[in-house]
Amino acid sequence: MPDTAELEARLAALQAEVGPLATLGEKDLEAAEVRLLGRKQGALTEILKQLPGLPPEGKRAIGAEANRVKQALEAAVAARREALVAEARAAEARAQDRTMPGRDRWTGAVHPTTAVMEEIVGIFNGLGFARATGPEVETEWFNFRALNFPADHPAMDMHDTLYLDLPERRRGDDRRANRSSGVGDHERRGVPDRRVRPEGRYLMRTHTSPVQVRVLLHNPPPVRVVIPGWVYRKDTFDASHAPVFAQIEGLAVDEGISFVDLKATLAHFARAFFGSKTAVRFRPSFFPFTEPSAEMDVSCGVCGGSGCPACKGSGWMEILGAGMVHPHVLANCGVDPERYTGFAFGMGPQRIAMNRHGIHDIRLFYEGDMRFLGQFAGGVTP
Ligand code: DAH
Question: What predicted TM-score, i.e. pTM, was given to this entire model?
C-alpha cells in the first residue's frame, strides 16, 4: 500500500528541482529531463505508477499535485532549452562578425627587375632583335680577349672579376659550336683554332658582352640580338653597387650598318621606354670592343630636363654604353670586318628602373621587402 505522505514528500523534492534546471548546460539538461520526466523510469512516472493503489482521497490530491509538478518541470526544461539555443546563436554571431574588415589576399607579381628587363627586351623584339642568352660561367677568352681587352686591362684584375677555382681550359670548350658548324668551318672563317685557343681561367662573367661573341660564332650575319642576363663583379653591396646585377646587351651586324643605325635604334628605344618627348644625346666614350664608342643620355624623366636632385641638376641621365663593333671583335668571331659592320650596346635595367621610379638604393631589388615589391605588383586584391 503506497504511502500518501511519502509520495507528497517525493513530489515536494521534485518541485525543488525546478529552479536549478535554469543553470544546466545542454548535456546535463538532457540527463535531468530523462531522470525527472522520462516516460519509463522517470521520477514522476514512478510516482504516478503508485496512484492506483492509493485511497480515492490521496489519488485525487497526489494526481493533481503530480500534474502541477510535471508541468512546472516541463516548462523549466523547455525554457532552459530555448535559452541555450539563443546563447549558442549569440556566440556564433560573435564568432562571425560581419562588420569585421576582410582578410587581404595577395596576388603574386613579376619582380620589378624582371618586369623592366622584359619591357626593354620587348621593345627590341619589336625592332626585329631576337632574344639570346649565354652562360654566367665564362672563360677569359669570351669575357675579355675575344672582346679586344688588352692582356693587362684593369677590368681583368682580381679586384673586379670573380675567378673560379677551376683548372684553366686550354682548348675551346664550346662543343655545341664545334658540332653545328665544325672546327674546319671556323678556320675558314678566320676564327682562331679552338683546339689551340687559350680559353684562360674560368670566371663569372662581368658583363653580357661575351654573348655577342657566342652569337657571332654560331650565326653568320645578318645578326640582330638582344641579350638579357645577370653579371658578377667583386663589389660589396651599397646603395649603388651590387655584386650581381642585371644587364641587357644588344648587337646588330650586317652589311652597311653605320653609326646612324645605332643612333636611330637607341633613340627609338629611349622614346618607346621613357616617353615620346624624351630627348637623347650621345657623348664620346671608350670600350675595348667598340670603336667609336659612346654613352647615351636621356633627358631626365623626373624634371623633364630642367635639373633636379634625380639627375643631380644636369637635366640628363646616362642610361647605356654603345658603339660600332670593333673590327678585331668581328675577326675574332670569324666575321669579315671588310664586309660587315655592326653596333652594340649595353645597359643596366636596374639603374634604368631606379631612374624611372626615383629609387635611391639598388639593394631594394634584392631584399624581397613586400612594402617595396607591392608598389610594382598592381597592389592588393581584397
Ligand atoms: N659591357 C659594358 C659594361 O659592362 C657595357 C657595354 C658598353 C656593352 C658598350 C656594349 C657596348 O655592347 O657597346 O659596362
Answer: 0.70
State pLDDT tens for residues 178-208: 443 333 344 445 555 555 567 899 999 999 9
Helix H or strand E segment including 56: helix 56-95
Q: 117 and 70 share a domain? A: no
With beta carbons less than 8 A apart as the criterion, state whether 138 and 172 touch.
Answer: no
Residue 21 belongs to what domain range? 4-95
Of 216, 223, 285, 345, best ligand 1 pocket probe by most atoms within 8 Å of the beta carbon: 345
In this prediction, residue 153 carries a pLDDT of: 82
Strand partners, 249: 227, 346
Which of 147, 207, 227, 232 best tests ligand 1's pocket when mutated (most atoms within 8 Å of CB)? Answer: 207
What are the respective helix, strand and coil percentages of the chain, to the nearest 5?
Answer: 45, 20, 35
Query: Is there a single domain that holds both residue 70 and residue 146?
Result: no
Four-point Cα dihedral 369, 375, 378, 382, nearest 10: 70
> Within 10 A of 251 (CB to CB), how many other CB atoms are there?
25
Residues at CB less than 6 angstroms from ligand 1: 207, 209, 249, 287, 290, 321-323, 344-346
- The string of pLDDT tens digits covering residues 97-142 is 888 888 888 778 899 999 999 999 999 999 999 999 999 999 999 9
Q: What is the pLDDT of residue 152?
A: 83
- Co-location of 50 and 137 in the same domain: no
Evaluate whether 11 touches 65 at the Cβ level (below 8 Å): yes
